[in-house]
Design brief:
With about 130 residues, the chain is of the alpha/beta class. Helix content is about 40%, strand content about 20%. The chain has a single domain, classed as Response regulator (Rossmann fold, 3-Layer(aba) Sandwich). It is globular. It holds the Pfam family Response_reg.
């Protein structure tokens, strides 16, 4: 089984690092979409089937928190799992995210295996 993923981060370099980490970790992907902010991410979700979103928090135009709130408020997108990939270290912010039904948190910098574990926990193990 392969997955359609959306990587949301304002840094093109970070998006490339996440894509490379996914390949290195052997995550079975089909389509990997990218967005530079929450607004672009919502547009991608409106036009494509997305199985999981990997999102940063601090971005221009629309931050990750607002994007997550909009996703979860819409019945057509509320079931898409979101994993936050951020350098945010605030325990208050992380607790807020966990309360908003975010299914995982990976702190930058990360190892490919950490990303894989978070994805498999959110999507289930495709090898089973």
């Amino acid at each position: 089984m392969t997955f359609n993923l959306l990587i949301v981060d304002d840094s093109k370099t970070v998006r490339a690092v996440i894509k490379k980490a996914l390949r290195m970790a052997g995550v079975p992907t089909n389509e990997v979409h990218e967005a530079a902010n929450g607004q672009e991410a919502l547009e991608v979700v409106a036009d494509h089937w997305i199985d999981l979103i990997l999102a940063d928090i601090n971005m221009p135009v629309m931050n990750g928190i607002e994007m997550i709130q909009r996703l979860f408020a819409d019945d057509s997108t509320s079931s898409i799992p979101v994993i936050v990939v951020s350098s945010e270290g605030s325990t208050t912010r992380i607790d807020e995210l966990k309360k908003s039904n975010v299914c995982g948190y990976v702190r930058k910098p990360f190892q490919p295996e950490e990303l894989r574990e978070a994805l498999l926990a959110a999507l289930g193990n495709p090898d089973e």
